Amino acid sequence: MGSHKYTVEFRIYGESLDPDSLTASLGLQPCRFHKRGEIRADGRVFEPMWAYCGPEERDWDSLEEGIDYLLVELWPRRDLIGKYRETCSTIWWCGHFQSAFDGGPLLSPDLLRRLGEFGAELFVDNYFSKSEDGE
After folding, report:
1. In the predicted model, is pLDDT for residue 21 greater than 80?
2. How far apart (Å, rounded) are the C-alpha atoms in residues 10 and 84?
3. Is the overall model pTM greater than 0.85, yes or no?
4. Residue 135 pLDDT > 60, yes or no?
5. Residue 51 domain-assigned?
6. Containing domain of residue 78, as a range?
């Protein structure tokens, strides 16, 4: 494993969200979802949420590559997704898994422009772990 890996999900969440209806509307199978009233491990209630990471979950060597992959898939559905922004929040949820403190993601101007046009916030959650060789 390199010193940096990324995961990318597009998420829609909000109290009025019905994940089953959203799945049918977009014609995409989510990688994870939470329905109204589901209980978390800590006893709190999940906010309804629908997340998509593509046909299968994977790690990316480049954050740009992962976001671009999902943007290409979701771009034709952006107007439909935009209707959900009236009552829900949309976010690109990105996990940054690092075993070194140097480096990190680099995003091109073209990708930043397309992200802006898509209209969802970008969130990067950072995680530090030891590399496979124990360092």
Report:
1. yes
2. 13
3. yes
4. no
5. yes
6. 4-128
Q: How far separated are the first and last CA of the chain, in Å rounded? A: 12
Asked if residues 94 and 125 have their Cβ atoms less than 8 Å apart, the reply is yes
Domain assignment present for residue 61? The answer is yes
Q: Is residue 133 part of a domain?
A: no
The encoded tokens of residue 56 equal 């299968």
Q: Which amino acid is it at 111?
A: L
pLDDT at 1 over 50: no
Report helix, strand or coil for 58.
Answer: coil
State the total domains in the chain: 1
According to DSSP, the residues that pair with 32 across neighbouring strands are: 51
Q: Closest by alpha carbon to 120, among 38, 18, 52, 28? A: 52
Q: Which amino acid is at 78?
A: R
d(CA 51, CA 90): 10
